[in-house]
Each structure stands twice: as C-alpha cells, then as structure tokens.
C-alpha cells in the first residue's frame, strides 16, 4: 500500500515537517529538500537583469526560466510566457523577496509594474501541497478535543475555568486550581491523542503553555502538540473587507495537531468538522489553514489549485488587468443589478415560492462564463472555436478550447461544476432520510458548498479576486435578468400573478378570477426553456410582505393610524406560514442577530396570534401581555441581551452609543474587544450617557430599562401588523391598559 | 459667439488640469464632458472614432448622470469608459490610454485620480511611485496630444500631490450662482456684486484674480453648444446650478 498523504505541516528554518495520520496517532517526517518559489514575468532584458541581481541574494537558492501562462486567457489561446522562477530557502522569505523585487530591484531602474509577480501570497501549507501534489484531506476519522475558556477568564489569564468537551475541569464544589486544570488536560491529551484541537480562542495555546511553564511543568511533561513547543504564526489583525470591518485573532501552531480557533472559523461555525474536511478536499488547503479561511479565501484556493494543475496558470499577486474601454451604452446596460419585482405589501393567501436553484453558478456553467471566455475576441488560430453573445450587453463569450488546456470546460464552470453536482447528490441522499451521523455529515457538507456557491458570483466582481473579472459579473447579471423576465412572462401567461421576486426567487399566487395552468407544468416548461432548473420551493397558506419602515407614516396621535396600500415593500422582509405548518421569517427583527431573545420570541408569538386569529386586535392582546410581564420585572435579563458587532476601536466612536457604553465596561474589566468582534449587553438605563447605560452579560444583577424594551416590543409588533395597514399609533389605541406604554415607545 | 481670452482652454491643451472638487461624488466632470462633447458633436463627423476617454475610479462614471448632461444620448457615442477598481488597474488604464489615444482625441478625464492609490491593498512603499508614474504619464500625454486632461481630487492632501504634475489647478467652489472654478491659491472675491454677472450671458471669466464661471461659461469656452444657447436652456439641461 502506498504511503498516505500528510494532513498537517510545519515549516522551520528551511525544512518541512509533515504529519501523517496512522491508525493510532500521527507520525512526523522531516523534509529537507523543499524549495518554495515565486515567479516573475516581465520583458526579457529586465528579467535577465533581475536574475543577475537575485543570484547574489542570500534568500535565493536558485533561479531558472520556466514556461507558464500568466493568466487564464493566455492558457485559453494556447500560449505560454517565459517567467523567472525564484526559489527561496525558507517559505517565510517569499513575501520579503517579492517586496524587494518590486520595491528595490524594479523601483528606480524600471517603470512601476514592469515586473508582475506570481505565487507570492500563498499560505505555506497550501503552497507545499500544491508544489508537491499532496492531497491534505485526512486519511482516517479525526479525533478532536475541544478546549474552552470564557472571555473574562481569558482576559484574567485564569485557566482554572477551563472546559474540555463542554465539561468544566474544576469540580462542582469549585475545587479547580490552575495546576489541576493543566494536569487534567495533560491526561486527556495523552489518553486521547487528538488530531485536532478545537479551541474557543487561539490565545489559549500560549496561555496554557505559559501557565504550564510557570507552574513548573517540564517541557516534555506538558505540551499541546504531539511534541513540545508552540509557535505564533500570525499576529492579530483588523481589516476591512466588502466595506465591513473584521478582526482576525493571532494564529498559533502546536506541532502534529491542527488547531481550529472557533472564534475565527466561519466554516467550523457553519458546518463543523465535516464541512471543514470537505473543504480541505475541495481546496487543497490543509485543515488548519482551511479552518480560518473565509469563503472567499477558500474559493480562491480552489481556483489557484485548478489553475496551476490543469491550466498551467500561476496565481497573480495583484490585480493589474483592467476592464476594456467600452461605450456608455454598454456600461449603462452592464451596470444594472439583478432583477427584482417590487413586493406587493400586504397579507397574501395561497402563495407559492419558486426558486432557480443556484442560479448564478448554473448560469456560469450553462453559458460557459469565465474570465478567459467573456469578450475573449481571440484569433482562433489553429483551434476551432465558436461563440455566443450575452443578452443586452453583446459581450461575446468564446467556447472553451479543449486543445489548449487539460481542463474539459471553461475555467469558472470547472471550479463550480463539481460543487453543484455534489450538492445535488447530497440533496438526493438527504431526501432518502439517512440515519445519523450520516445525515448531519451530509448537511454540513451541503452547507459548506452552499456558501461557496452563493459567493462565487459576487466574488467575480470583487476588486481583488485573483481570477475575477467585472465583465463576468456583468454577464452573469445580464443572463439572470433574462432568465427572470422569461419566467415572469411565462408565469403571467399561465394565469399566475407575481407578488414578489428577488433575483432567483419568485412568489406567485393565482390571478383573481382565473383558473391558472398547473404550476408544476409551467415550472418544467420554464426550466427547459432557460436551461436552469426552476424548483417549487414551497407552498404557503399565507405570506406577508412588510413595507419599508420609512414608508409607514407615523406620529404618536395623529392620522387614522392606517396607511394606504401601495407603501413601498422592503425587498427582503417577509414572513409566512408554509402549508406544512412551519413559519418562514426573513429580514424582520427575530432574524436579526442583535435582537434580544425576549423580543424575538414575542415577535414569533405575534405571528402565531396573527395566524390563529387573523385579527390585528388579537395580536395586540399578546403584545399587552408581553408588555405587562416586562413591566412586572418577570423577564429573565439574559433574554434581554443584545449582541452587536464592534465596527471600530472605542476611541474612534464619536457618538455615545450603547456599543460605546459596552466597550467602556469591557475595557474597565480588562477585556479586549477589537473591531469585528461582538459585544453583549443588557440596556440598564437608556437615558444614561456613561457606561451605566448598559450592563455586560456576565455582570450580575441590576435592573433593565423597561421603556427601552417596551419600544423594541412595539416595533417588533409593528413589523408584523404593518402589512395589514396598522402602524404603531393604531397598535397603541388597541391596547386596553394605556399605562403599559410611555409615549416614547411610539416615536423614533 | 464670443471667444474669450485668456481661456482655460488654452491651458488645458498644454497638459494636465486638476479640479479640486468638494466631494468624490462631484458631477462637475460629467457636465464638462457633456458640454465638451456637445460642442465637438456639432463640429465633427459622428462616424469618427473615440474622441474622449474616461478613466474611472470609485464608480464615478454614473451613466445616468452623464446622459442627463446632454440633450441627445448620441452626443456621448464617442466617449469610452473603463473602470479601475484597484490602483494597479488604474495605472494600467493610464498606460492603455497612451496606446489608444491619438490625434483625434479631444479630452481625457480621470475623476478621483489619486484615490485608489491610498487603498489598503496597495503596500505603503508602492503608493507614491505608482501614483507619480500615472500622473507623469497623463501630463506627458496631454503635452504630446495637445489635448486637455482633466483630473479631479476631493482630498486636499492628495490634491497637493496631483497638483505637482498639473499645469493648472482649479478649485470648484459651490456658490449661489453655480459652480465657480477658482484658480488655486487665490481667494475668491466676495459673492456680493458677482451675482448679476453670474446669471448673465457674459458671466464667468477672468476677474483679475480668479476665474469665476458657471457651466455656460465652459460651453462658451468651447465654442458654444449651439447658436444662441441661452442661460435658461443651459439651466434646463442641468448645465447650470442655480440654487437661489
């Protein structure tokens, strides 16, 4: 039997330690002959000059000229460029060398941008697997061990509160001390020999290790890895992406084990270990690097691997290639977004939701949309090729040229096709109702795929997407509009009325006084026509589309309290009841992360009352009871906690918001909150301007601000009743006990 | 129609003009391009190639705004637009224009010209050099082609860098009469006393120490939109801002 591929990697001083899973644990192998490399393209003489300079650079171990494609289009037309391959002694040197090539060697002697760099910013493990053709997917079932500390304990450096697999290490009687916590952990590590440490915070690695040293444990007595030692891989970092501020904590390594930091792993939180393992397989990123990757990072890795292996295309460092100059008419058409049908605000019965499943990825695959095919305009040369045009835009989409690459379809479709087909298979298998744990593994994989598919379209338009092109983004949009309009026409001809639609979903109801054609038949016809399956997602007893808050006229005591239909509908705010009985909520308070549990739960009760009684007055009765328990102090404060995301450092806030008050309290407790992280608090006194305004979730006791939460309740109720034409002043009049509410609950 | 001397047009022809705009979303460039192309459309054969290039940054080239600046969509047929989303792309577009533009090119514009060079995805050490190379190229292009190159900047610090490469720097000042372009470094005179002339046909040129102009002035400057173009028409077409 051939040796299995390793699953974890460490890089030290020019060597690589690979870890292979064995039946009992994992074994290391030291690799000394690995030379990571970056590539440089540029004019021949400039490259020759650079080569001569680099040969005297101690970071460089070898330079040679190799033939690669510098972008997908070059590969598509069967061409290659001569690039300088610069081998480095240590993987850590690659970025530094890249900086020097552009910043020192290019600058001054050549025009900026003379040298284009490739394969610069790859994570070390991913790079190694790519270079060596390694598939880092685990070769047996992984053993995990979960270690957790509360934020506050972490801030205090108190390890006695350590929990292992959800169990506190300290006994019920509070007999925990740091030494016994570490002893217990050591025993568990020895006995279970986990392959993956799933930690609540990456900082647990240095904290636990340093405590062990302080308490006199010998290095070989206590170690979180399979051998002694730990390393910090990257420092903490605040960044901005898609206009949102994020925070990535420092990353650590414990030899021989993969670390998953759950405070910094989208994938773990969405899909757990099964989703993570699936993505290791699909991207070629080793488990630890897959764990902290964003969806965009994972998608990029998958593309880089495919580009390198099947297309001989390297990963560009920067996005130099701009769009072509085009006339205004084309730009005007291209700039339009996805198609939307204005929602008809109100309460609708007998509504069907129909969806184009994975619309964007399917458009990409169906029409061969890819950076190298859209507006390719290539001279076919020796190859036979064909093309089609994008509706509205007229971009020419070139057919894939099979002779030019190893791939058998255009690039982007090749990236997505396997994910689409896996997702289809998984859906089919789930439909057979498999037993656990099979079912949850399938759901996790499907969830992981979903996120990548959802992101692939936006990613094409993302400024720094390595293989993204705005023209692809526009072409996909143009096809999507075409698909939506075709569907609309056919549905309306068949006697259906569209009450709402966003890009890939349509809500339809039989047109009044008409016997419509059976929906399934119409759907099948549309699917066949557009080449993308349209699915009947669900039938609703009723659906309410919620108006935009701005379009609800308000004012404490004036007006009739009802507004005319025709208010603008919010595109993504609705709720309804499926014929099977379950509710669906979108965009309203109870779906928002910041909404306190009590308010969310109350809103659900409002919807249930509406369903039961079909009468706004009945909903107001529920509101009245909720308000009265709020006034009576009967609500558990933990149900009033608000969670919000911090968008900037405390010092950068100008207004004294609740978040600021919460940050001040965290700071007072010595707990570090970075932009991108969350704060959790209860509103204690909304009129206060200082930190007294809120109380953090772990701070005991105290009152909550009744009026503040009453306002929240009224708003949640208004969202439910506004489709029926009720605003908050009418809600107020419907309450029997006027004392339950301050007037302030009705004004913004 | 009168021709005004000294004209800004002469200075444009010699190279790069920086417009210091109050906001990255300023639409003065849209209106200047509209006015310029309106003028050239009456003079030139509509079948000729692209005569104007727009190097976009930060999605400034809102097509609807541009259409609103002209009386006929066909006026803009000779305009070519490409959008940069990174500084690298912007720099590449500047280089591309040098290959595509020629003697027929009448105008090149680059709104928010320095903006992308300050994004986080560009390493600190690279910003200055890359921006300088782009600006130098644009300035040289203006000299070689003898065509006006208008760039904008809404950020004062960045504008200073751009100004180093510009032959002319004008500040856009929003006034009650409209937008006034002030030659940089000189204080605008008091609004009082200028109002009458601003809404007058003869409004807006050299006032000794500053350029005071409304959009019709630019229309005049470029030889006028059409015979007898009145202020009222200019206003109707959105060329003139009258807020009073």
From TrEMBL, chain A:
Belongs to the DNA polymerase type-B family. Keywords: DNA-binding, DNA-directed DNA polymerase, Nucleotidyltransferase, Transferase. This is DNA-directed DNA polymerase. Residues 335-494 form the DNA-directed DNA polymerase family B multifunctional domain. It catalyses: DNA(n) + a 2'-deoxyribonucleoside 5'-triphosphate = DNA(n+1) + diphosphate. The keyword Protein biosynthesis does not apply. InterPro entries: DNA-dir_DNA_pol_B (IPR006172), DNA-dir_DNA_pol_B_multi_dom (IPR006134), DNA/RNA_pol_sf (IPR043502), DNA_pol_B_thumb (IPR042087), DNA_pol_palm_dom_sf (IPR023211), DNA_pol_type-B (IPR050240). GO terms for molecular function: DNA binding; DNA-directed DNA polymerase activity; nucleotide binding. Its EC number is 2.7.7.7. SMART domains: POLBc. It holds the Pfam family DNA_pol_B. One of its GO terms (biological process) is DNA-templated DNA replication.
TrEMBL record, chain B:
This is RecA-superfamily ATPase, KaiC/GvpD/RAD55 family. It comes from Natronorubrum texcoconense. The lineage of its organism: Archaea, Methanobacteriati, Methanobacteriota, Stenosarchaea group, Halobacteria.
């Amino acid at each position: 039997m051939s040796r299995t591929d390793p699953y974890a990697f460490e890089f030290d001083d020019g060597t690589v330690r690979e870890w292979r899973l064995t039946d009992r644990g994992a074994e290391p192998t030291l690799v000394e002959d690995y030379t990571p490399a970056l590539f440089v393209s540029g004019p021949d003489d400039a490259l020759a000059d650079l080569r001569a300079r680099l040969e005297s650079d101690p970071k460089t171990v070898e330079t040679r000229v190799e033939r690669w494609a510098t972008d997908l289009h070059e590969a598509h037309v069967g061409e290659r460029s001569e690039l300088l391959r610069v081998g480095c002694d240590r993987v850590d040197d690659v970025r530094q060398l890249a900086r020097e090539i552009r910043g020192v060697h290019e600058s001054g002697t050549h025009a900026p941008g003379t040298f284009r760099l490739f394969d610069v910013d790859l994570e070390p493990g991913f790079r190694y697997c790519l270079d060596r053709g390694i598939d880092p997917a685990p070769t047996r079932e992984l053993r995990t061990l979960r270690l957790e500390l509360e934020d506050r304990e972490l801030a205090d450096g108190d390890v006695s509160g350590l929990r292992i697999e959800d169990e506190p290490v300290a006994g019920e009687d509070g007999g925990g001390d740091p030494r016994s916590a570490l002893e217990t952990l050591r025993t568990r590590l020895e006995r279970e020999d986990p392959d993956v440490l799933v930690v609540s915070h990456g900082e647990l690695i240095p904290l636990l290790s340093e405590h062990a040293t302080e308490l006199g444990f010998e290095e070989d007595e206590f170690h979180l890895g399979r051998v002694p030692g730990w390393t910090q891989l990257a420092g903490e970092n605040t960044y901005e992406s898609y206009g949102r501020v994020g925070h990535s904590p420092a990353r650590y390594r414990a030899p021989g084990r993969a670390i998953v930091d759950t405070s910094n792993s989208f994938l773990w939180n969405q899909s757990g270990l099964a989703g993570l393992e699936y993505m290791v397989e699909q991207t070629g990123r080793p488990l630890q690097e897959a764990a902290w990757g964003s969806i965009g990072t994972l998608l990029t890795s998958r593309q880089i691997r495919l580009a390198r292996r099947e297309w001989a295309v390297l990963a560009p460092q920067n996005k130099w290639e701009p769009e072509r100059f085009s006339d205004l008419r084309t730009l005007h058409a291209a700039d339009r977004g996805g198609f939307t049908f204005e929602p008809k605000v109100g309460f609708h019965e007998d509504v069907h939701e129909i969806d184009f499943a994975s619309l964007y990825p399917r458009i990409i695959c169906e029409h061969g949309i890819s950076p190298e095919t859209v507006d390719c305009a290539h001279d076919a040369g020796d190859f036979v090729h064909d093309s089609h045009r994008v509706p509205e835009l007229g971009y020419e989409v070139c057919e894939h040229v099979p002779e030019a690459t190893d791939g058998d379809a255009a690039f982007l479709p090749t990236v997505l096709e396997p994910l689409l087909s896996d997702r289809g298979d998984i859906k089919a298998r789930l439909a057979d109702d498999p037993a656990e744990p099979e079912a949850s593994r399938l759901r996790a994989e499907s969830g992981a795929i979903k996120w990548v598919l959802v992101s692939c379209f936006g990613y094409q338009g993302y400024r720094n997407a390595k293989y993204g092109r705005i023209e692809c983004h526009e072409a996909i949009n143009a096809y999507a509009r075409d698909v939506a309009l075709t569907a609309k026409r056919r549905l309306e001809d068949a006697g259906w009325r569209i009450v709402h639609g966003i890009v890939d979903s349509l809500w339809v109801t039989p047109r009044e006084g008409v016997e419509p054609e059976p929906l399934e038949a119409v759907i099948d016809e549309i699917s066949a026509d557009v080449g993308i399956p349209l699915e009947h997602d669900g039938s609703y007893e009723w659906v309410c589309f919620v108006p935009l808050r701005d379009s609800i006229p308000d004012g404490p005591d004036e007006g009739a309290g009802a507004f005319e239909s025709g208010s603008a509908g919010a595109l993504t705010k609705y709720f309804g009841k499926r014929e099977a009985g379950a509710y669906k909520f979108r965009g309203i308070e109870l779906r928002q992360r910041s909404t306190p549990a009590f308010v969310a739960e109350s809103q659900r009760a409002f919807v249930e009352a509406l369903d039961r009684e079909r009468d706004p007055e009945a909903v107001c009765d529920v509101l009245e009871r909720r308000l009265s328990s709020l006034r009576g102090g009967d609500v558990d404060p933990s149900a009033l906690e608000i969670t919000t995301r911090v968008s900037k450092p405390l010092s950068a806030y100008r207004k004294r918001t609740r978040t600021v008050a919460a940050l001040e309290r965290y700071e007072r407790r010595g707990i570090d909150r970075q932009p991108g992280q969350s704060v959790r608090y209860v509103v204690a006194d909304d009129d206060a301007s200082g930190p007294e305004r809120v109380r953090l979730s772990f701070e005991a006791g105290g009152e909550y601000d009744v009026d503040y939460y009453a306002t929240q309740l009224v708003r949640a109720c208004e969202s439910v009743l506004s489709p029926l034409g009720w605003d908050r002043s009418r809600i107020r009049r419907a309450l029997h006990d006027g004392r339950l509410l301050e007037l302030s609950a009705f004004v913004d | 129609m009168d021709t005004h001397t000294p004209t800004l047009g002469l200075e444009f022809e010699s190279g790069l003009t920086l417009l210091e705009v109050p906001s990255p979303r300023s639409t003065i460039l849209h209106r200047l391009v509209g006015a310029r192309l309106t003028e050239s459309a009456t003079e030139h054969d509509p079948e000729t190639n692209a005569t104007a290039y727009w190097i976009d940054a930060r999605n400034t080239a809102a097509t609807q705004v541009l259409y609103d600046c002209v009386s006929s969509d066909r006026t803009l047929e000779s305009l070519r637009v490409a959008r940069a989303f990174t500084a690298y792309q912007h720099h590449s577009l500047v280089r591309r224009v040098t290959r595509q533009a020629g003697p027929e090119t009448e105008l090149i514009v680059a709104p928010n010209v320095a903006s992308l060079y300050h994004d986080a995805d560009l390493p600190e050490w690279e910003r200055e050099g890359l921006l300088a190379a782009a600006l130098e190229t644009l300035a040289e292009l203006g000299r070689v082609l003898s065509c006006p190159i208008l760039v904008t900047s809404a950020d004062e610090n960045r504008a200073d860098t751009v100004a180093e490469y510009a032959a002319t720097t004008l500040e856009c000042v929003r006034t009650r009469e409209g937008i006034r372009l002030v030659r940089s470094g000189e204080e605008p005179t008091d609004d009082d006393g200028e109002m009458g002339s601003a809404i007058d046909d003869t409004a807006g040129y050299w006032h000794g120490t500053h350029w005071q102009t409304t959009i019709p002035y630019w229309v005049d400057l470029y030889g006028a939109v059409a015979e007898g173009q009145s202020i009222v028409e200019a206003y109707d077409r959105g060329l003139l801002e009258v807020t009073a």
